[in-house]
């Protein structure tokens, strides 16, 4: 939505949503959801951990001893086979544009948004989906974090530009209305060779290793002509 506040000043507000879908899920067909045990774990207390540690992690899974040793038979399927997985980005952009009389354009604004994710259905039906690869190290993501969202992140932006047409009318930029250039012509008897053809012949000569061509009885004339 864009509205004029005062002459040459406008307010632009936009609401955006980006939705991702058709996620790929790798399922080991030789393992079922009941082949895993669910347990909780208390995080050790340490000042280097978020909140100092001591929290309880719920929804961790471990493979039952009876399921050990089964060969792996992975199959890639869409998330819709196991439930619903969502990921989307919601944002609001606000900017103010100021078009000055001298052709200068100023724009300031903000962009605020957050990401929302939910893969609880996938974790419940495919427990091995909780394994997360972190730089070559496999970690286990607890089910309590299957529904997560980032805080709103805000960015500030500032843009300035110059409109040549407005600047010329304001007298800040001089742009010649007409330009003239010289076209070279090669005159050979009653034959005229245009500058473009002459350039093509010279280029062909350079490719053959000949850097200069001379035509008997030819003279070069420069005739100025408007563009």
Structural features, described:
By secondary structure, the protein is mainly β. The protein has helices spanning 120-125, 164-170, 195-207, and strands at 2-6, 9-20, 24-28, 36-42, 56-63, 74-78, 86-99, 104-118, 131-134, 137-140, 147-149, 153-162, 180-188, 191-193, 218-226. The strands form five sheets. Strands 1, 2, 7, 8, 11 and 12 form a six-stranded antiparallel beta sheet that branches. The protein has a three-stranded antiparallel beta sheet with strand order 14-13-15. Strands 3-6 form a two-stranded antiparallel ribbon. The two termini are 43 Å apart. Mean pLDDT is 78; it is low at 177-190 and 209-227.
Low-pLDDT runs of 5+ residues are: 177-190, 209-227
Elements, N to C (H/E): EEEEEEEEHEEEEHEEHE
Alpha-carbon distance between the two ends: 43 Å
The largest β sheet comes out as: 6 strands, antiparallel
In helices, the fraction of residues equals 10-25%
Rg, Cα atoms, Å: 35 Å
Mean pLDDT comes to 78
Basic shape: elongated
- Specify the structural class: mainly beta
Strand content: over 45%
Q: Which features does this protein show?
A:
mainly beta, 227 residues, six-stranded antiparallel β-sheet, 15 strands
């Amino acid at each position: 939505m864009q509205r004029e506040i005062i002459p040459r000043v406008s307010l632009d507000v936009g609401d955006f949503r980006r939705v991702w879908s058709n996620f790929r899920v790798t399922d080991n067909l030789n393992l079922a959801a009941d082949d895993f045990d669910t347990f909780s774990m208390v995080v050790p207390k340490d000042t280097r951990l978020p909140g100092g540690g001591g929290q309880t992690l719920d929804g961790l899974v471990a493979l039952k001893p009876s399921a050990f040793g089964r060969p792996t038979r992975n199959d890639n399927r869409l998330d819709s086979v196991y439930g619903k997985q969502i990921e989307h980005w919601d944002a609001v952009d606000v900017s103010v544009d100021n078009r000055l009389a001298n052709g200068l354009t100023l724009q300031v604004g903000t962009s605020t948004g957050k990401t929302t994710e939910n893969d609880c259905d996938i974790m419940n039906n495919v427990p091995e989906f909780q394994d997360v690869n972190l730089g070559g190290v496999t970690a286990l993501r607890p089910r309590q974090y299957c529904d997560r969202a980032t805080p709103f992140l805000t960015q500030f932006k500032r843009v300035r530009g110059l409109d040549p047409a407005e600047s010329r009318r304001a007298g800040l930029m001089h742009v010649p209305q007409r330009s003239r250039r010289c076209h070279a012509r090669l005159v050979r008897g009653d034959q005229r060779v245009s500058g473009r053809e002459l350039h093509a012949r010279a280029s062909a000569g350079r490719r053959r290793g000949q850097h200069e061509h001379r035509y008997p009885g030819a003279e070069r004339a420069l005739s100025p002509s408007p563009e």
